[in-house]
Write a structure and sequence with these properties.
- This protein is of the alpha/beta class.
- The protein has one domain: Alpha/beta knot (3-Layer(aba) Sandwich), CATH 3.40.1280.10.
- It is 37% helix and 20% strand.
- It is built from seven helices and seven strands.
- β1, α2 and β2 form a beta-alpha-beta unit.
- It starts with 13 loop residues before the first helix and ends with a helix.
- The mean pLDDT is 96.
Length: 179
Amino acid sequence: MRKLKNSELDRLSLEDFKSAKKTPLIIVLDNIRSLNNIGSVFRTSDAFLIKKIYLCGITATPPHKDIHKTALGSTDTVDWEYAEDTLSLVKKLQNEGVKLTAIEQTEAAIMLNDFIPEPDTTYAIIMGNEVKGVQQDVVSASDTVIEIPQYGTKHSLNISVSCGVVLWDLFCKLNSLKN
């Protein structure tokens, strides 16, 4: 079996990406410290045609060499915006009809494998700080909390890994609703 060359992967051009129909998912990064994590979220968001990323609080914004190192140009493809206050942003999104979904461990969290997205709905996926997670007031404002099932000894996954797991799962589920 031969590995494919990048030129054989049939990827979208920047212009085609910008005009492509986007997956109805918005990413909200709530006070992410690591520039590499931010870059990884951009790159994963590009892979799944994510609608937009909001960078909130202390989350750094492009252009930055350490974001670019992992984003590999996806800061140019994926729409993004900075918002100083995460809670104000999520209330604004909620008023626009976006369903807020925090990725966190809470008392009544729905396990990711059990979550079924509603058709014709845009979801804002809120990813929290590497140490403190999603702010409590943002969790309280959310419509849903999703937890990624984990069976080992650790309490959490790295945010870039969590984002990849959640986006892949929701991308698959949302695409299956189209059929």
